[in-house]
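@channel sequence for tomorrow's demo:
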Amino acid sequence: MRTFHFRPVPFIATLLLVILGCSLSYWQTQRAHQKELIEATLLMREKAPPTVFSGTANTGNMEYSRVILNGEFDSQWPVYLDNRPMNGKAGIYVVMPFKLVNQNHYVLVVRGWIPRNSLDRAAIKRYDTPTGLIQIEGMVKMHLGHVFQLGQSVPLQPNVMIQNLEIDEFVKASQLPTYPFVIEQTKGTEDGLLRDWPRASSGSDRNRGYAFQWAALAGTALLFFLVTSFKRKEEQSERTNQQ
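structure tokens (generated this afternoon):
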């Protein structure tokens, strides 16, 4: 016959593992749910025709909408976002302000992707920037996305290569009145940039897989604690006698 033998230290360790596993499992499940909601929004807004952005729309409800912008690029303020792989290759996002026609305001446009120079990381592959009034099309996003920050960020200035960029930081550094969203460009003139953008909703299955793994870790830790805590009476008596 086996009896339960409570041991404080293994119990605390198991409790911490269970809390960690359950918390991370819940977080990954929520991430998967968020991506599925984004996918539903994308599917709905992809069916709608693109609208010309006039500066009067409620920008808070525009995310993932397709819009058309008329204006011109400000080639004096390009910013390069590092550590942005595409199709398995290391590369850079080219970000540039776009001045809207008949307006004093700008929109930050993620123009496209270029590969990193493997020999000289400071070198930027040549790309073209159209001059004069043009029309571009893209998808509205409320931020530029974030990657793991390697080292300290350098001061924001034209032609700088950084890893993360906030719109308010750009406004402060450039002094350009800029709308609080970005455009991920999908159509425009030929400029040598790649625009095979990753889908914002991708990866929900992976998140659910991670959620299962963390939940399994919590369950395994609890099961191990219970199994090892039940001792035969003979074993318990023998240990008591040895003490």
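heads up for whoever presents: The chain has two domains: 2-31+204-242, 65-187.
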